[in-house]
Amino acid sequence: MAFTPSRRIWMNGSLVPWEEARIHVLSHVVHYGSSVFEGIRCYETRRGPAVFRLREHVRRLFDSAKVYRMPLPYSTDAIVAACRETVRDSGLASCYIRPFAYRGFGDVGVNPLGCPVEVVIAVWGWGAYLGAAALEEGVDVQVSSWTRLAPNTLPTLAKAGANYANSQLIKMEALANGFAEGIALDSQGYVSEGSGENLFVVRGGRLVTPPMGASILPGITRASVISLAGDAGLEVVEQRVPREALYLADELFFTGTAAEITPIRSVDRIEIGSGEPGPITRKLVAAFRGILSGDAEDPHGWMEPV
Ligand code: PPE
Predict the structure, then answer these.
(1) pTM, to two decimals
(2) Contact in structure between 284 and 233 (CB atoms under 8 Å)
């Protein structure tokens, strides 16, 4: 996917040149997927670059690390400050921020506890996640033959690198079949989420999104859309979504930091609504864009200047 690298990467407390941000091949993370990460967007606004919900993302990074008994050797404030510093250093007006932590090289074998916890923050320029036309026209998706992580397997409230082995299978299957993305069902057969996005169904003027218990990542964009819908006087419910409710939706869209709000125009080659982004999706996109660009007020205090 097209991206613009930055000059330097923040690695364990200092900025190093992009090419020199390396790890040892025997690092625990390479063999056992022991990492947790975040994805955050920084936008160019009228008042200079501002990061969307930076503290909430950093908090989730700490939550993910806690689940994996991975003590991060920095405070929340220090990581927040380091994200800002890395963005400033990049000189990019808008960018994607990827803070992550992993078990490095120290010992061999599955037990991670003898391996050091390292923290890195990289930033890069990143455009539309599901293709240039996606935000305007919507994307064609399929329901995946892969099931989302079952409870008691990999915990989905943690944004762990290991979870993305499942996401990779979903994504590659979708692309091989000519779709932009796949939607996975949970182990009970209800709708969960995309390989890297949460999902909303609109029907009869009401929004429905799968609940925390449907093996979803509790998305920060998802939470933001729930707030924006509330601001607009729209009803939102978190409830289990059967697969066929996707086909019967008036409107359907993905949410995510990378994907932002991406309309879905078909599922399994069944057209959703009129096959074009619907009025509620458009209204939410406009409200979201207004805040991200700084053109509208930021009533929830989501934008943090860099
Ligand atoms: N579900 C999954 C599985 C997921 O990876 C993401 C974000 C979301 C939901 C939405 O969460 P939030 O960003 O807090 O609204 N996926 C990130 C990684 C994308 C990637 O390809 O890497 C992202 O959007 O940054």
Answers:
(1) 0.98
(2) no
